[in-house]
UniProtKB/TrEMBL annotation:
UniProt entry keywords in alphabetical sequence: Cell cycle, Cell division, Cell shape, Cell wall biogenesis/degradation, Cytoplasm, FAD, Flavoprotein, NADP, Oxidoreductase, Peptidoglycan synthesis
Pathway noted in the entry: Cell wall biogenesis; peptidoglycan biosynthesis
Swiss-Prot/TrEMBL catalytic activity: UDP-N-acetyl-alpha-D-muramate + NADP(+) = UDP-N-acetyl-3-O-(1-carboxyvinyl)-alpha-D-glucosamine + NADPH + H(+)
A GO term for molecular function: FAD binding
Gene name per UniProt: murB
Domain annotation FAD-binding PCMH-type: ranges: 24-209
SUPFAM superfamilies per the UniProt record, alphabetical: FAD-binding/transporter-associated domain-like, Uridine diphospho-N-Acetylenolpyruvylglucosamine reductase, MurB, C-terminal domain
UniProt-recorded name of the protein: UDP-N-acetylenolpyruvoylglucosamine reductase
UniProt subcellular location: Cytoplasm
Catalytic residues of the enzyme: R174, S238, E312
Catalytic class of the enzyme: oxidoreductase
Amino acid sequence: MATAIRLRPRLRCRERLSRFSSIRIGGAVEAVVSLSSSEVFGDVLDMYHRGEIPGPLAFVGRGSNILFPDAGLGGTLVRFEHGDGGSGSRWHPDGSVDVDAGLSLPALARDAARRGVTGFEFLSGIPGTVGGAAVMNAGAGSGQWSDLCESLVVATGSGGSDILLPQDLRYGYRTSALLEISAGDPSAPQRHIQEKSVVLSARLRGTLADPAECQAKLMSHLDYRRSTQPLDEPSLGSVFRNPSGGPPGYSAGRLIEECGMKGRSVGGVMVSPRHANFFVNTGGGKASEFLELLAIVAEAVLKQWGVILEPEVRVWNA
Ligand SMILES: Cc1cc2nc3c(=O)[nH]c(=O)nc-3n(C[C@H](O)[C@H](O)[C@H](O)COP(=O)(O)OP(=O)(O)OC[C@H]3O[C@@H](n4cnc5c(N)ncnc54)[C@H](O)[C@@H]3O)c2cc1C
């Protein structure tokens, strides 16, 4: 994406992973590289090949869907984090837009509404990036990433890139062909590159509309979230996917709530009293506590409803 200033990737050593996850959990990592634009992704590969940063490389956005391990990670966390060097998006008159992997979803949604392009409003309350949404097929209400996505630009190695189309991406409910590759077991960076799983940018398309209507839709999405979700506490959003089985119309949250699990906690991790499918870090929470609580909740739902809940959060191993 066009940026006003080409900022070099920023390198930091021996950082706490908890700083880079929205639930504030995770041990140390050897190195962290932050990219203010995916244009400088080639610089990261050069740094890796010159031995300036340790491998393996693990690729993340805002860490709003990742449970990092208490024991920490070896290698380098590569963060796509759009900075102040440019807008991170290039709009076209027909309602399509090219967006950088590190662009924040709420910023994109606000920009679309301001320009009178509808279809992006559901992204306004999802605190992740374009790259994370492209991998997770993020969605809310009746909208999901795959409704907007026309193509992705992915890294092929040595700073090169290729284009993936929706048929390559096999999007489904909170899943994509990229997900298993970019998952919680960061392996050699060459594999990510060879399998084209590192997202650099996306081409999205909305529909031209009245800006006031877009703004009203966006505000109603945000109001709904504020009234139902614990947005002022550290969390990873929905812990479990909504199940396909179980009583018709029951979400994972409702199944958990009706097991009486709201407020249940293990150490510093608690099932939110506000939304039963959110676990919040009440202070000093650990990944081990999160996983113990996850097992307790899944067991309770299985026992009461006969439904197997599957995690939506990405659990990374040390
Ligand atoms: C309060 C709250 C509310 C939420 N609400 C929703 C919701 O309504 N709907 C929803 O779908 N999600 C929701 N989430 C979860 C999360 O915000 C989304 O899954 C989001 O898309 C993740 O984006 P991210 O940038 O944080 O990705 P991360 O959490 O950093 O990464 C997620 C996965 O994508 C991979 N990844 C990230 N960037 C790249 C890249 N550039 N190239 C390759 N791989 C990459 C990572 O390796 C990881 O496997 C919520 C989370 C919170 C905390």
